[in-house]
Structures are given as C-alpha cells and as structure tokens.
Amino acid sequence: MFILLLLLGVILLAFVLAFRIYALLPSGKSPTSSNRRSTDTCSIAIFLGSGGHTSEMQTLISNLDFERYTPRTYIYCHGDEISLRAVGKLESDKGTSTKSDSYNLLPLPRARKVGQSPLSTSFSALRTILPTIHHLLILPLLRDPRNPFADVLVINGPGTCAVLVLVSWIRRILALPHTRIIYVESFARVRSLSLSAKLVRPFVDRFITQWPEAGGSNKAEYRGWLV
Amino acid sequence: MSPHTLLVTVGSTLFPSLTNEILSPPLLAKLSSLGIQRLIVQYGCADLPSDLGIEVDGAGNGTGLIRGMQVEVMRFSERFEDLVRRSEAVISHGGSGSILTTLRRRPAVPLLVVPNESLMDNHQAELADEMGEQGYLMVSRVEELEQKLPMFLSEEWTKGIKPFPEMDGTRFRGIMDEMMGFN
After folding, report:
1. What is the predicted pLDDT for the residue at A29?
2. Residue A193 pLDDT > 60, yes or no?
3. Average of pLDDT values for A24-47?
4. Which UniProt keywords apply (chain A) (predicted)?
C-alpha cells in the first residue's frame, strides 16, 4: 500500500513537472524582459563552443556594448586554447573602457565530441552536468538566491550548450528569477538546422537563424546575416 | 591583372582529395601556365603527396620551387587572416570562417570553394552553392578544378565579383538590447 502511494506520488510529481515545463516553454513570440534604463547593466554568459562556433560567437559579442553587458562570464570547454585566446582578443579589443574584473572564465568538461556514440555521449554529458550545476546553479544560489548566474546566456552550439540550457531551466521550473537564453544558428546553416539547434530550440527565449530558410517549415526569426 | 599569389586552404579539416589534386603535376603545370608565381597550400590533417619534392619541418611546413612557382606548404596556420591578406586568389574547402574572412578582404579577391563531398552531413556545400548563386564566389568540384581554374583566375571574373557586405553590427546589438529591455 505504501509503495503504491509512493508510486502514485512520483507519477503525479512527474505530471506536474511536465505540465510546468510545458507551460513555461517560450511561445516563440520573443517576449522582452522588463524595461531597463539605458544606464543599467546586464550580466551576460557567453558559451564558446570551439572552432567555427567560437569564431562566430566572437564576432557576435564584439558588437555589444561592454559597459552595458557586464560582468561577462565566458564558458568554454577544458583545454580549448583557441576559445581562451578569443576571450583575450575580445576583451583587449574593447580596450581601456573595461576593467579586468568585469569578466570571468568558466571552463567545463566537454559533453560531446564530434562523432561520439549516443551511449558514451550520455555518459560524458553527465560529467559535464555536475560541474555545470555547481557553477551555474548552486554557487549563485548561495551568493544571492534572487540573482541567476547571468541575466542572459548566448549560445550557438555545439552539444555542450544543451547542458547549459538544461541547468538554466532548473531555476525557471522553480519560479526563481532566471537566465534568458538566446540561440544564434551558424551562418553556415542555409537550409537545415544543426543538431544542437533542433535540441534546444523549444527551450530558448530567442532562436535566430542567419538564412531565411534555415528553420525549415517551422520558420525561425531571421534578421539577415549577423556575422 | 590576373592573380600571382594563390592560397589553397582546408582549415583544420582532412581533405586530401583537394590538396593532392592541387599538388599534382598536371594542376601545378596548369597553375604555372595561368601566371601563378606563388602557391600557398595549407593542407590540414591530410598527408602531402610523397613525390612532391618539398622538405617539411616538424610542424609540417616547407617551401620549394616547382615549375617556376614558389610553393609553400603548411599544415595549419595560426594567422589565417594574414595569409588571406597576402593572397590574390583563394581556393577553400568552404568552412564558413574561411569564406567570411576571404570575402571581407579589401580589396576583394576571387574565391573558389570546393566542398568536401566525402562529408556525410554536408551543409558546407549548401552554403557554398547559395553564396555561389548570389555571385559572391565560384563553386567547383575537385574533378572540375582543371577546367574551371582558367576562368577563376581570369581578369573578367575577378572584376565581376559581387562585393560582399560588411558586417552590420547593429543587428545583433539590436536583438540583444531589445530582448533585455533596453530601448
């Protein structure tokens, strides 16, 4: 009897959770967040996914006002020297207007290598999820429960970015102030989406492609080339 | 004036059918006859043809003189932008980074993209085809190279390239500011 009740409870909880997630899914109408004054700042997390992802992200971010989007957290995969150099270049190109404490670095274990099998992917995804939960959820909660690790998270693939979306969603489900997420599909995607884009699309607040037909029949937001 | 310095690049990919074709005797002869004086081949993860006759160092870089052309081979390049700046024509595997860097070079240089058809999910071919249709670059398969090179390196083609627009930084900034409630 007790086990039955417990089981019922678990099923009920799963239903409530599923409904909560469903109810929270961004409608695609790109809601804007509450108004900020032009002198306000906005904390930002930037995922540098290696290779072409990193270079496109570097270009995107270089267009932002660094005095407005501060502090900046750069998330990248362990051992990705190229992304680390990209951060150095981004920050130094913006020059004297930024202080060195206006950004920080967060290296994470890589969730999926190109060509890795689904089984071993799920294993290494787990190795990524735990430190991500630690840095993106637990530490910010201990620091100040009202503030998420960043006001906005910018991603453009590959796989590891799905882990960031997953962990960011925990606060959303708990109805705490949460990180808004924007995904920018690569300039290289003309008529089809990448795997990571398809994966995270329902869960991000803004989903943008750089070619009008890239989203397929389910049209995505398109504002021309961004890089 | 037709180009004298030609860069062939495959980024960090493995594309031996392109690099071996470019470094084959018939293609080298063709390039030399078309006025190329300096050929730079960044060959990535592939191996060089064993009979090329150019000694390479530990990093896989070397130079040699073939058919009157100065041929420079390198496995990878840290400074791709500098390479493009030094070149007067570029043949690329079609990575989006190399396409953007080349098309934004000023003054503009002709770009020929050879998509790697051995890749399974080949969205790079889609990008190349679309950009080719819009007139920004020329697309070729490996087998068509010998036939397309004279056109690609000709003055008419170089003159007729459609200029690629500069990046409009206000677009992404606008999207972000709008999303985060800055007006």
Report:
1. 54
2. yes
3. 82
4. Endoplasmic reticulum, Membrane, Transmembrane, Transmembrane helix
Averaged over B20-34, what is the pLDDT?
A: 96
The boundaries of the domain holding residue A66 are: 41-222
| C-alpha–C-alpha distance, residues B70 and A10, integer Å | 72
Residue A176 lies in a domain: yes
Instruction: Assess A224–B contact: CB distance below 8 Å, yes or no.
Output: yes
Query: CATH number of the domain that B151 lies in?
Result: 3.40.50.2000
**Whole-number pLDDT of residue A114:** 65
- The ipTM estimated for the assembled molecules is 0.89
CATH number (domain holding residue A211): 3.40.50
Strands B89-92 and B5-9: parallel
Instruction: Report if residue A1 sits inside a domain.
Output: no
Residue of B nearest to A62 (CA): B169
Nearest CA to CA, how far is B53 from chain A (Å)?
32
- Look at residue A184 and tell me if it is in a domain: yes
Number of domains in chain B: 1
Kindly tell me if the per-residue pLDDT of B120 is higher than 70: no
Residue B137 structural domain: 5-179
Give the closest of B96, B177, B179 to A186, CB-based.
B96
Of A34, A208, A226, the CB nearest to B181: A34
Cβ within 8 Å, pair B176-A52: no
Q: What is the pLDDT of residue A110?
A: 79
**What's the structural domain count of chain A?**
1
- Residue B120: closest C-alpha in chain A: A115
Residues in CB range of B21: below 8 A, 6 or more apart: B27, B142, B145
Cβ distance A180 to B179 less than 8 Å, yes or no, reads yes
B100 CB within 8 Å of a chain A CB:
yes
Contact flag B179-A30 (C-beta cutoff 8 Å): yes
Per-residue pLDDT, averaged over A4-28, amounts to: 88
Q: Between vectors from CA B124 to CA A199 and to CA B131, what angle results, nearest 5°?
A: 115
Tell if the CB–CB gap between B127 and A187 is shorter than 8 Å: yes
Chain A contact set for B168 (CB, 8 A): 224-225
A22 within some domain: no
